[in-house]
Specification:
The chain is an alpha+beta fold and 230 residues long. It contains five helices and nine strands, in the order αβββββαββααββα. Strands 1-2-3-4-9-8-5-7-6 form a nine-stranded antiparallel sheet, with helices on both faces. The chain is globular. The N and C termini lie far apart (114 Å).
Length: 230
């Protein structure tokens, strides 16, 4: 009887030890997977940042722009004239989310033109950009006469009567195309002397050909908004 009890205890002890080893092994696997995910995510982020720096540097060399490479983990910045009188700035912006605790990073293209349109105004569809427009001293709503104009767009102006004759079908068409651009939030804001076009996106803008194509599309918008000479 004593022998049987000893064998039973030994058997139960062996089972417990195997369970404990299995439990430990499971946690080792879990932590290993977590570490791999974190390291992989960090490595991918650094790779994208490296590509972004090289792409923006190449763009800057091609168009004689000022380029700031930034630190190892810091984003770059590029600024300069790309089209005669159009000043282009590329930078990364840290933005707080609505919960007040989280943040996100957005890459921004800002184009400044030394001309505007009578009446002044600003237009955007993204909630954050619309909130910015509401903070400006633009007292009147402007409703474009365009059948496919985005319903969510906010267009404010200082003087709708002055602005209306300048919102030609061609200008409304390029603004509509800009506002409907996928994977990007856009805004145009202007007075009679200066116009700004802003595009922000989560895309790292790390492909030179695609970046130049995007810039050319934005230049088309700005050139269409340019007042006729004379």
């Amino acid at each position: 009887m004593t022998c049987k009890c000893w064998r039973t205890r030994w058997f139960l002890r062996m089972i417990r030890e195997k369970q404990e080893r299995a439990h430990v092994n499971i946690w080792v696997v879990i932590w290993a997977l977590i570490a791999i995910i974190i390291l992989g995510s960090s490595g991918w982020s650094y790779w994208l940042l490296f590509r972004q720096k090289n792409t923006w540097a190449a763009l800057s060399r091609k168009y004689s722009m000022t380029f700031v490479r930034g630190g190892l983990s810091s984003p770059p910045e590029a600024k300069g004239l790309m089209r005669k009188d159009l000043l282009v700035t590329l930078y990364t912006e840290q933005q707080a989310l609505r919960d007040g605790r989280s943040q996100r990073y957005r890459n921004v293209i800002l184009i400044e033109a030394p001309f505007g349109l009578p009446g002044g105004g600003a237009v955007a569809t993204a909630p954050a950009l619309k909130a910015y427009i509401m903070q400006q001293k633009l007292k009147e709503d402007f409703t474009p006469d365009a059948p496919q104009w985005p319903k969510e767009a906010l267009f404010r102006t200082l003087n709708a009567a002055l602005l209306a004759p300048n919102m030609t079908p061609d200008r409304l068409k390029v603004l509509q195309t800009l506002l409907n651009m996928p994977n990007a939030d856009t805004m145009v804001i202007f007075n009679e002397q200066t116009l700004f076009l802003r595009l922000e996106t989560a895309d790292p803008l790390a492909d030179l050909k695609k970046l130049e194509n995007l810039l050319n599309k934005l230049f088309t918008v700005v050139d269409t908004l340019r007042p006729a000479v004379g």
